[in-house]
Amino acid sequence: MATKKLRRAKLSQELCERLSRYQITTCQDFLCLSLLELMKVTGESYRNVQKLLRKVSLACAPKMQTAYEMKVRRSINPSAAFLPTSLHSLDKVLHGGIPCGSLTELTSPPGCGKTQFCITMSVLATLPVSMGGLDGAVIYIDTESAFSAERLIEIAGNRFPTYFDSDEKLFCMTRSIHLYRELTCDSVLKRIKSLEEEIISKKIKLIIIDSVASVVRKEFDTKLQGNLAERSNFLARGASLLKYVAEEFSIPVILTNQITTSLSNGLAIPADLVSPAHDLSLSEVTGASGSGKKESACVTAALGNTWSHSVNTRLILQYHDLLTRQIVIAKSPVAPFSTFFYTVEKSGLVLQVIHS
Amino acid sequence: MQRDVGSLPLSPALRARLLAAGFQTAQELLETGPCGLSKEIGISREEALEALQVVRQECAGDAAKTAGGSGSTRKCTALELLEEEQTQGFIITFCSALDNILGGGVQLTKITEICGAPGVGKTQLCMQLAVDVQIPECFGGVAGEAVFIDTEGSFMVDRAADIATACVRHCQLIAEAHQEEDHLQALETFSLESILSHIYYFRCRDYIELLAQVYLLPDFLSEHSKVRLVVIDGIAFPFRHDFEDLSLRTRLLNGLAQQLIIIANDHKSAVVLTNQMTTRFGQNQSMLVPALGESWGHAATVRLIFHWDNTQRLATLYKSPSQKESTIPYNITDKGDQNHSWYSRDLQIPALTSGLPRCAASTCHPKCRRY
Fold it and tell me: Closest to A53 (Cβ–Cβ): which among B215, B236, B241?
């Protein structure tokens, strides 16, 4: 941990006092200095400083595990590795469902069914393990005020009619979904920081943030100078906090995003513009330069490139025709590219088989 | 022996005292002896003894260097280097085109950087390399172990297990075709379990943990001398936020690069880093460039950039001291990166035109087969 005080890194008392005179109190301060600077502040010889560096590093460094140990741990508890989405073909391709311990992003144009999907996942998480759920509570951070409790009950009742046969069960389920309405980036970040304690106290098994894009795009206008950096900073900090929480407690985190059609953000890279002779850059196409031989305006997920790196799995929902939509696995460490068609019904999302 | 006192690696306070007392060369110090030294400068005898031991070690090291000793020097002729390079192994990627442009595979003792947009396959390649480094020598591998430092949390054990299983099967096919004794012997120890047990995984959550881990890496590699690959998946991620002081970031990154070069050379292992792409706004265009700035570009010896061309993944060898710049297509199958393969992934989605919704599937391959 970076903010670990040097005292806890087993350095001697006088050394810690001497270092605190130079305002070096945490491991972070210590490791950011070069060797010569360390020699100056500690007053030790080169060899001793290297030994000290190793000691402080030992206090901060992560523990080693072999991939085999990780696999064994996973296989002991297979049900804890994924949250099945109850869309069977999707689950099969994803090797089980939404992975626990990593961030999953859901992107789509408005009205495709992101919130429906999130509500369905909240129901699923509260189900007992025997039915494919996680038997736990859900934290739902809603920034668009789109969550509807009535719809929640409708989906639960129609999707699992045999399980939710009594009002008691429905109320029990709704009691374990904790809804937070956050309307600014700051409050979202504060809420994410407080997640660790809530998870332990309320036995949370799923975190949903719907949606990250709306609150970020409301507050940060990337055309203004400096805003892009601040936005990336906020997103990166949020992402790393969420990742820490997801991994620590081994729970899935679902985030939703929007689609942008902004021309300068298109990620299309025509082959003839890419050449190693260009220095270090892969040019993106802007709408104006399209000469009509291909679609020049492309839509991509909002929030930029850096955010795309932070999420581990990305599912894209989009329209297919008037009634059916499709869900595309765009980024996943375990699944290949796949497309599934679905419609939104009373019971939430239902997969369809389209014969083209 | 004539080494200047000011250049000795003693503590600064001690050095200042020695200079104030008038000592100039290391020879004088050694002649005075610990008791004389302690009386002249006013330090305890134990401290004086310690200082003299440091001086003695330093001088012995110097003498070995000037006499042309082999151990600690890094000096050799180009012919020796050529012989070394020719016998050195490569870590193959099982994608023949990629191996070709790299000149045989990922080279040992060099730093290779892989940059690419999200979802393009960097972590897949790293996992593949962590498996391929363990291929026994009779099959053309380097029979080493791998250290995997993960900063983004994208390492999936199940996927690594899939790749490992495919690799073992591939080697089994080769062994069946050739029917040689050492092949079958090697296969006995080359199993899924042994492959996964030799991937040493570290999860670093922030840049301090990463720095700490890299400081500890030389000791770890001395204990596990069979390690031939160090992967840092996501060197950009921990450095891209919470850094107001960009000069500190540059300094830390440079220090990191230096240490990695030393590790690569001393332990004869390959270092593979993955980097993100960031958007740089030009005059009327925005471009995707590797993250972490221009000066980081100097750190890696070999730079591979993975990108998309509509639906085809391409790899461009951007920087290499020995190979020509070139671009090749590649694909990812369930067995890992392979050259001949089945499906490709579509990252762009065509726009909604005139209100009528369009399907992305119409632009991707109509026959997307899955293996």
Answer: B215
